[in-house]
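Troubleshooting: if your tokenizer reports a length mismatch, compare your output against this known-good record of 230 residues.
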Amino acid sequence: MIFAKYLVKLLVMTWDPFGTLRRVLWIGGGQWAGKSTVSNILAHRHGLCAYHFDYPNVRGHEDRLAARGLADTRTPDEIWVRTTPARMAAEVLAGFPTRFEYTLDDLRALVSGPPVLAEGWGLRPELVVPIVADPRQMIVMVPTEDWRAHQLVHLDRAGAFTHDVEDPARGQRNRIERDRLITADAVDRATALGIRVLEVDGTRDAERVADLVAEHFAPFLPPLPAKIGG
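Known-good structure output:
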């Protein structure tokens, strides 16, 4: 019975009527490593369709969670302050598989000539590996500790904590440590599964980091368009 349930779940994960999933290129990893920026650069360079995991509300993911009784009904203080980073990380990691199912549904609905490039911290190596033909179809981007600290100071959306809680400073500390734990988990899982990990330390600009990611994905990317007069 347990095996049958696992088989059904695997079939649901891999069902691919238009062949889109087999050709997706995946960028996972940690917060503030530049995944979205790099995916946008590569999408423009190679004419790819870019899919951003971090915008689920637009696609009704929160509504689907609510319909299944999985919506988070806790108060902001319960979520961010009256907890621990380890518990927060465990809760986020536990929720990624369901959100990944919804992501696969979104991707199945796409038909694209070039591959689709999907990015986001919830695209975990252990979830992606079962549905790709080649581990080179994924890369995990993570910030070094120094670059994470830099981003928190200089990148507004990284350093902002906008939740209305009783202790914003503690909430921010919990969030930062939660993100560090989730990033470390992604590195551990990628390493165990033979997925490349690319550390981003700020010494390369976004275009150069995109070059490195493009080199990794080279067997699957369409050629760059020829320059007029070049």
